């Protein structure tokens, strides 16, 4: 509603905004906003740098990269005695089936670095019996014994008591740089080296199922620190080991086809660019063609349902209701009932009616949405540099992710080696107590708990820093989310400022200011770092809570408390909705910040009220934009994927000889399809930001201006035509004034 002094009122919501005759797009004379949040943000970044430095000083990435044996030594590290021994070997992997493994996260058996895993079944007893006839038995077996041990004549009982050598070895293959039994399922029977049983070196015959259980338990320790173990996969280890060979072939395929993959991605980039530029001509055609296709398809569905209904009518047993036959696993039974087709027909008829009614009553809003999409294509054509801004966002995000990952690794590897007493006897009271491996053999523990040992458990410490490692990891995660969301917010505000400069130019492209993208980026960083950080912080806190809820839900999956699971499910749903609402509001708040230069809260409030006054236009534009952009992504990735398929399968005769020899043609094919989709997604994100910015500017234009010479509409002529709006020319205004002056003279 127009105000008395050239201002305008925000209908029923919000406060009135007076008309500013000097407004010509993004305000240049602006001040810093949300300074306090900016200061806090800078302090947090400095603290984050300090945290990373402290983690780097205390941590050691080798603890994550290399396996650690029972003596705290790294396997495979260059410059150490274990340089050529990169694989961890378990003396008695059957001990890993002990329940204490899941409590202490450590297998209670000696762990040794070896150069290769054993490839045969053998026991120390068999070796001792055979090595006198053939020294090769001992030469092979001793590589799995302690390096200091070289006495094969030592009694078996003493060797096993001192754990100088393993009591047995089984055919194994490396998995995660650790030796695990080489399981193979033959005709549904689990085997190791074609055997279903073996000798354990203590005079007993064991089943390979025992090995499987022990291997699963230890895999839980390895992966359970991060994720739960995959259940019910006896051949899972074998499958993952075979993946190594597949990985080598995949690497070879990438090495021979990377050039053609790159060409495919360049083609997808060009196609995405052309698609966006052509939307000014094709947006309406694409939309109405698809809508017409949907109407025709639904209409055909109605006819087909009626035809099936008529065909079945009168047949015996077709008049039975669905409730009479109840639930059937064979759904073809329901297709023999007239009631089924009647329900289908009525449902499709209702859907058809809704589509037609929506198009009839919202046709003008759909036309506005299509016109804005076309205008967005023109804006992209004038500001081509905006399409490449996501590269800056990508580099900043890569920097944030790399810093977070490195900091997390160094925090996780902080501390010194901690050794604990490991015993297979449940009555040992010293189990899980810290110990010193240098003095352990002289302590009373070995006497009170025979066969116990002091083995490496984890890395840690007793200092204040080490006690709060988990808290520091949480801080690392929260700041990481804040930085990521700030980077995205900076990109959105920058693009919004550039596209707002385009919209508020009365003559396009003559009145567009020079370097709009660079100017917008400078304004966003110089004046609105605090506002962007404020919005990013709100979103980051919600995301942080969601991550914690997901973690709790993962931990409580086995719980039988139905109320707890229900409560967690409700909380997850609520915070998911809250996160998406905040993302939507932040996006529009950043657009208002880029235009008016107000603080975050004021911009969010103005954007919210503006959208609420035009809620139907918002809904229609959002759905039309999402639909066309999704269709565009499918068309681009699909067309480039089809082209890549014909190329890599040698079905294009002209360039058939240029196709590289591949192990798996689907490797470069899937890479091209996925890469094409991501490139299209990046281009269309810029386009979506453009359309959203132009839409808010369009709504502001409608409320601020009336088409007069002093307050002309800045919208495109196509939008004015849809709304029956016109800009009055100054000559027309002067002519009208002259006519008014002449009218009194004629009367006299």
UniProtKB/TrEMBL annotation:
<feature type="compositionally biased region" description="Basic residues">
    <location>
        <begin position="724"/>
        <end position="740"/>
    </location>
</feature>
<keyword id="KW-1133">Transmembrane helix</keyword>
<feature type="transmembrane region" description="Helical">
    <location>
        <begin position="341"/>
        <end position="362"/>
    </location>
</feature>
<feature type="transmembrane region" description="Helical">
    <location>
        <begin position="661"/>
        <end position="680"/>
    </location>
</feature>
<dbReference type="InterPro" id="IPR007603">
    <property type="entry name" value="Choline_transptr-like"/>
</dbReference>
<feature type="transmembrane region" description="Helical">
    <location>
        <begin position="258"/>
        <end position="278"/>
    </location>
</feature>
<feature type="transmembrane region" description="Helical">
    <location>
        <begin position="627"/>
        <end position="649"/>
    </location>
</feature>
<feature type="transmembrane region" description="Helical">
    <location>
        <begin position="561"/>
        <end position="578"/>
    </location>
</feature>
<dbReference type="GO" id="GO:0015297">
    <property type="term" value="F:antiporter activity"/>
</dbReference>
<dbReference type="Pfam" id="PF04515">
    <property type="entry name" value="Choline_transpo"/>
</dbReference>
<keyword id="KW-0325">Glycoprotein</keyword>
<feature type="transmembrane region" description="Helical">
    <location>
        <begin position="35"/>
        <end position="57"/>
    </location>
</feature>
<feature type="region of interest" description="Disordered">
    <location>
        <begin position="724"/>
        <end position="748"/>
    </location>
</feature>
<keyword id="KW-0813">Transport</keyword>
<feature type="transmembrane region" description="Helical">
    <location>
        <begin position="285"/>
        <end position="303"/>
    </location>
</feature>
<comment type="function">
    <text>Choline transporter.</text>
</comment>
<keyword id="KW-0050">Antiport</keyword>
<keyword id="KW-1003">Cell membrane</keyword>
<feature type="transmembrane region" description="Helical">
    <location>
        <begin position="479"/>
        <end position="506"/>
    </location>
</feature>
<keyword id="KW-0472">Membrane</keyword>
<protein>
    <recommendedName>
        <fullName>Choline transporter-like protein</fullName>
    </recommendedName>
</protein>
<comment type="function">
    <text>Choline/H+ antiporter.</text>
</comment>
<feature type="transmembrane region" description="Helical">
    <location>
        <begin position="383"/>
        <end position="406"/>
    </location>
</feature>
<comment type="similarity">
    <text>Belongs to the CTL (choline transporter-like) family.</text>
</comment>
<keyword id="KW-0812">Transmembrane</keyword>
<dbReference type="GO" id="GO:0005886">
    <property type="term" value="C:plasma membrane"/>
</dbReference>
<feature type="transmembrane region" description="Helical">
    <location>
        <begin position="527"/>
        <end position="549"/>
    </location>
</feature>
